[in-house]
Amino acid sequence: MSVSSGFVSFERPVLTLSTPLLCVCGIGIVLLASYCLYNLFLHPLSSLPGPLSARLGFPLVRFHAAWRKTYAWRLKSLHDKYGTTIRVGPNSVSTNDPAAVKSIYCYGSSFHKSGFYLPFGERNSPSVLSILFYPWDRSVRSE
Predict the structure, then answer these.
(1) Fewer CB atoms < 10 Å away: N or C end of the chain?
(2) SS3 9
(3) CB burial class (10 A; 0-12, 13-18, 19+) of residue 50?
(4) In degrees, to the nearest 5, what angle opens at C-alpha 123 toward C-alphas 121 and 129?
(5) What confidence tens digit (pLDDT) does each residue in 18-60 have?
(6) How many Å apart are CA 58 and CA 117, to the nearest integer?
(7) For residue 34, how far is the Cα from the chain centroid?
(8) Residue 2 lies in a domain
(9) Are the CB atoms for 75 and 88 separated by under 8 Å?
(10) Tell me: the pLDDT tens digits for 90-122?
(11) Of 91, 108, 132, at which residue does a domain stop?
């Protein structure tokens, strides 16, 4: 606002292309930071150890090792460093404890299985393997 000879004139703020771009970038940075903080502190798997990138929600170690075809060796070194049960992604856990494997994959387990087990059978006609490993309806399993 400028005052000249007793009259008040309002000047329009200059709106350039950089102003909306800065707003979008700022919102993106805030969303990314909140995603990382959620995965690091509030996620149900946040108490599990693992590489920082996996705990933040970016499984860079897993992708890099898979790209170089060294995932099994990298996973073994991570288990040697962090323990028997580790977090390898935002929603992924790896364990090398036989008791844990038995409790995860036993019949009636409350653990949610990934979509990996779906190819063993079609959705309408499950196979024996998919029924064993994927939590289908009881009505499907009892037939």
Answers:
(1) N
(2) strand
(3) buried
(4) 30
(5) 788 889 999 999 999 999 999 999 999 999 999 999 999 998 8
(6) 24
(7) 14
(8) no
(9) yes
(10) 988 999 998 888 887 777 777 776 666 555 555
(11) 91
The residue range of the domain holding 101 is 97-143
CB of 89 closer than 8 Å to CB of 59: yes
Residue 34 lies in a domain: yes
Q: Which tokens sit at 22? A: 């800065």
Structure tokens at 131: 């029924």
Task: Name beta bridge partners: 4.
Answer: 7
Domain boundary among 91, 109, 135: 91
| C-alpha 40: how far from chain center | 11
One-letter amino acid for residue 24 of the chain: V
SS3 of the chain: helix, strand, coil, percent, to 5: 50, 10, 35
The answer to whether the CB of 104 falls within 8 A of the CB of 91 is no
